């Protein structure tokens, strides 16, 4: 009986500590800004406004052919980072630039830091390079680009780990909503079918929140050691 009571006490103590920790974090971290259909699991672009001048866009499951890609990218296939589906578009970098622009209006909390991000993949026979700037690949918040100018090489691959992350930070200021737009293009004069998945706009935890998490975990560990 003593063993049972001791075990029950350990479990109860851990449960109370965990409940306290997550309750504290829930009140310290603002609710995440929610994009609609961020991974295209509706099998379409529901919730998104699709713009740009890409000649072809779609949502497909992993391994399906993205038609009409140019050499050296053909054959070109859909890659999925998570879930069942991801989006794709035929894009190129010059003569003229062809890109897809996906946008939504997102509710935000005033004076809060946020991150905006997406993952990009290339399931074809060749790598390609893309320019990151306001005329090519960019994340816009109310028309302002978040990503600094650079040149990024996207290597080919057919697995979830072959995606690369594009991510930027912004502060909501006095706003209660923002227009977020993700622009994606390719490289050179050949059209490649890019895969994109797991778009996100979410609050960045403040340092005090991270400190609370550390203190909570230490407290749970201490309780466990004393109980044992």
Throw out a few tags for this protein.
5-stranded antiparallel β-sheet, 2 helices, globular, 228 residues, 2 domains, Jelly Rolls, alpha+beta, disordered N terminus, 36% strand
Give an overview of the whole structure.
- This protein has 228 residues and is of the alpha+beta class.
- Helix content is 21%, strand content 36%.
- It is built from two helices and 14 strands; from the N terminus they run αββββββββββββββα.
- The strands form four sheets. A five-stranded antiparallel β-sheet has the order 1-6-13-9-10, with no helix packed on it.
Give the strand content: 35-45%
Q: What's the CATH class of the largest domain, please?
A: Mainly Beta
Number of helices: 2
Structural class assignment: alpha+beta
Would you identify the regions where 5 or more consecutive residues have pLDDT less than 50?
Answer: 2-12, 15-28, 208-213
Query: Count of DSSP E strands?
Result: 14
The proportion of residues forming helix, as a percent range, comes to 10-25%
Task: Report mean pLDDT, rounded to a whole number.
Answer: 85
Tell the overall outline.
globular
What integer value in Å does the Rg equal? 22 Å
Reported by name, the CATH topology of the largest domain is Jelly Rolls
Q: How many independent structural domains?
A: 2
In what order do the strands lie side by side in the largest sheet?
A: 1-6-13-9-10
Largest sheet: 5 strands, antiparallel
CATH architecture designation of the largest domain: Sandwich
Separation, N- and C-terminal Cα atoms: 17 Å
Order of helices and strands: HEEEEEEEEEEEEEEH
């Amino acid at each position: 009986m003593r063993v049972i009571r001791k075990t029950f006490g350990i479990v109860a103590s851990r449960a109370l500590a965990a409940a306290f920790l997550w309750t504290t974090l829930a009140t310290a971290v603002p609710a995440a800004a929610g994009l609609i259909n961020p991974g295209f699991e509706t099998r379409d672009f529901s919730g998104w406004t699709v713009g740009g001048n890409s000649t072809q866009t779609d949502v497909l499951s992993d391994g399906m052919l993205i038609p009409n890609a140019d050499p050296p990218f053909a054959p070109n296939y859909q890659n999925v980072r998570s879930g069942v589906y991801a989006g794709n578009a035929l894009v190129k970098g010059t003569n003229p630039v062809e890109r897809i622009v996906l946008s939504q209006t997102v509710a935000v909390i005033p004076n809060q830091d946020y991150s905006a991000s997406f993952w990009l993949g290339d399931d074809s026979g060749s790598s390609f390079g893309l320019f990151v700037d306001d005329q090519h690949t960019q994340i816009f918040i109310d028309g302002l680009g978040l990503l600094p100018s650079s040149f990024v090489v996207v290597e080919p691959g057919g697995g979830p780990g072959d995606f690369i992350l594009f991510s930027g930070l912004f502060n909501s200021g006095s706003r209660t909503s923002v227009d977020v737009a993700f622009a994606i293009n390719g490289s050179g004069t050949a059209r490649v079918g890019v895969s994109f998945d797991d778009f996100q706009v979410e609050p960045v935890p403040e340092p005090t929140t991270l400190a609370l998490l550390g203190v909570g975990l230490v407290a749970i560990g201490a309780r466990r050691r004393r109980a044992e």
